[in-house]
TrEMBL record, chain B:
Source lineage: Bacteria, Bacillati, Bacillota, Bacilli, Bacillales
Record GO biological process: DNA-templated transcription initiation; response to stress
Gene3D superfamilies, sorted: 1.10.1740.10, Winged helix-like DNA-binding domain superfamily/Winged helix DNA-binding domain
Protein name (Swiss-Prot/TrEMBL): RNA polymerase sigma factor
Family listed: Belongs to the sigma-70 factor family. ECF subfamily.
GO function terms (MF aspect): DNA binding; sigma factor activity
Keywords, in A-Z order: DNA-binding, Sigma factor, Transcription, Transcription regulation
Species of the source: [Anoxybacillus] calidus
Classification via InterPro entries: RNA_pol_sigma-70-like, RNA_pol_sigma-70_dom, RNA_pol_sigma-W_bacilli, RNA_pol_sigma70_ECF_CS, RNA_pol_sigma70_r2, RNA_pol_sigma70_r4_t2, RNA_pol_sigma_r2, RNA_pol_sigma_r3/r4-like
Pfam families given in the database record: Sigma70_r2 (PF04542), Sigma70_r4_2 (PF08281)
Length: 83, 187
């Protein structure tokens, strides 16, 4: 059994943040190639990210803007008449 | 886009309330989405999102134009969502089954897509599992995950919105992802 680099999980996350140096990326790739456990961990992380990114986008009610406008403090509306 | 927003804000500061409707239209989906993912409940998300726009309007004179307007707005919405989470009674908090009713609403929305009912239901179940996993995250991780993956913002923008160093944002993102992996990675 080879030993996993102590910072390998951190490298995975740096990779996911697209903030990994070319040297570190090489270390990560080499290790994932050899280590099934870390490879699984990395795949699970990527899958998790994909699930969250693809969660459906809900939209607010049709009269959302009208409701906000109706709830704004009233007094400033008079200024509009002065334009 | 940013220029349009800047012009609208100038008009609002001069008292043109109608200009604000355009701002609300531009950002309502993003702000609502942010609140929904933080709170996991459509009704509360609608309420908190409206509140965020009203707060932004009332405090528009404190907005510093050096910051992106969207960042300022997201900051208000995130803080209000966190306030709301903290105010929730613990038993209500645990009762995340409210998302059951949300599911029905979501189902009627998804029903218009062309996927077969089985596929729709399957993805609906997955949607709920994902949302529940997000809701289980402590709020400091939840906000970072939502801003990164639902709002698709950069680490730099998230750092600006939450007023945290980029390094802290990264650490929270890493921990949030690990926590989610434990819940979702085996699916």
């Amino acid at each position: 059994m080879m030993k996993c680099p102590s910072n390998i999980i951190e490298l995975m996350h740096n990779y996911l943040d697209e903030e990994i140096s070319p040297q570190d990326e090489l270390i990560l790739r080499d290790h994932l190639h050899e280590c099934a456990k870390c490879s699984q961990h990395f795949n699970d992380l990527k899958k998790t990210v994909a699930f969250i990114q693809h969660s459906s986008h809900l939209v607010p009610s049709d009269d959302f803007t009208a409701k906000v406008m109706a709830r704004l403090p009233k007094e400033k509306k008079t200024i509009r008449l002065g334009r | 886009m940013e220029q349009l927003v800047k012009n609208r804000i100038k008009a609002i500061k001069k008292g043109d309330q109608n200009a604000y409707a355009e701002i609300v239209e531009i950002y309502k989906n993003k702000v609502y989405q942010l609140c929904y993912r933080m709170l996991g409940n459509r009704h509360e998300a609608e309420d908190v999102a409206q509140e965020a726009f009203i707060r932004a309007y009332i405090n528009i004179h404190t907005y510093n134009p050096d910051m992106k307007f969207s960042s300022w707005l997201y900051r208000i919405a995130t803080n209000l969502s966190i306030d709301r989470i903290r105010k929730k009674k613990p038993d209500f908090y645990l009762d995340a089954e409210v998302s059951g009713t949300d599911g029905l609403t979501m189902y009627s929305q998804l029903a218009s897509t062309e996927a077969s009912p089985e596929d729709t239901l399957e993805s609906l179940e997955l949607q709920e599992i994902v949302q529940k996993a997000i809701l289980k995250l402590p709020e400091k991780y939840r906000s970072v995950i939502v801003l990164k993956y639902i709002e698709e913002l950069s680490l730099q923008e998230i750092s600006e919105i939450l007023d945290l160093p980029v390094g802290t944002v990264k650490t929270r993102l890493h921990r949030g992802r690990e926590a989610l992996r434990k819940q979702l990675g085996h699916l």
